[in-house]
Amino acid sequence: MNLRMTFGSLAGAAVSAALVVSAPAPVHAQDSADLASAVTALRAIATMRADFVQADAGGQRVKGVLTLKRPGRIRFQYEKGVPMLVVSDGSALTFVDYEVRQVQRWPIRNSPLGALLDPSRDIGKYGRVMPTGSDRIVSIEVRDKARPEYGVITLVFTRKGEAPGGLELSSWAALDSQKRRTIVTLSNQQYGLPVPDNTFRYNDPRAPIRR
């Protein structure tokens, strides 16, 4: 497996996970209700931990554990053998490649992930509800037409009474500006777990090696 290529797809999927978009507001009453429910569901999550599987268009799959603590903090911990990490400490989103000892950081307020992590963001003004053929599934496509480099993300929710807000984020599909598609599927979601703040720290691989 090409880890660096996989990481690029993973990072793209993570960064695209909740774009603030400029699509037209939905016109149907049910669409409006579903979009409002999705916004409520995202905002109702205080902490969440879930297993994830990420697949790219070539069929490569990478597993890991996602930990979320609102506002502002998220961690994508990849399976053993994948020396990569995506983490936000609430102020910056960081991509770490331990194999080549590289770190990239962006202010979380400028990141598309801000729409997922910042409770003050109102994505309800911009999303577009997509048909799914099932009353149990709510699918919302989000994109920023003014920032095509962000790509397109489709968030998929499953109606579940015990989930925060009655909808559970079950997967998302991201299409980046180079038309590369990645799909992240969540399972075993757990809510309200105690999550210490140091979960969102990382070991900087650029630190000098002491002898």
Model description:
The protein is of the alpha+beta class and 211 residues long. The protein has a single domain, classed as Clam (outer membrane lipoprotein receptor (LolB), chain A), CATH 2.50.20. The protein is 15% helix and 38% strand. The protein contains three helices and eleven strands. An eleven-stranded antiparallel sheet has the order 6-5-4-3-2-1-11-10-9-8-7, covered by helices on one side. It starts with a helix and ends in a 20-residue tail after the last strand.
Rg (C-alpha, Å) = 17 Å
Q: Any guess at the CATH architecture?
A: Clam
State the fourth-level CATH superfamily: Lipoprotein localisation LolA/LolB/LppX
The total tally of domains equals 1
Poorly predicted runs = 15-27
User: What is the string of SSEs from the N terminus onward?
Assistant: HHEEEEEEHEEEEE
Could you tell me the CATH topology label. Answer: outer membrane lipoprotein receptor (LolB), chain A
Strand order of the largest sheet: 6-5-4-3-2-1-11-10-9-8-7
Q: What characterizes the major β-sheet?
A: 11 strands, antiparallel
Strand content: 35-45%
Overall 3D form: globular
- Per DSSP, the total helix count is 3
How far is the first residue's CA from the last residue's CA? 33 Å
Mean pLDDT level: 79
Label the structural class: alpha+beta
Please report the total strand number as a whole number: 11
Query: Which CATH class?
Result: Mainly Beta
Helix content, binned percent? 10-25%
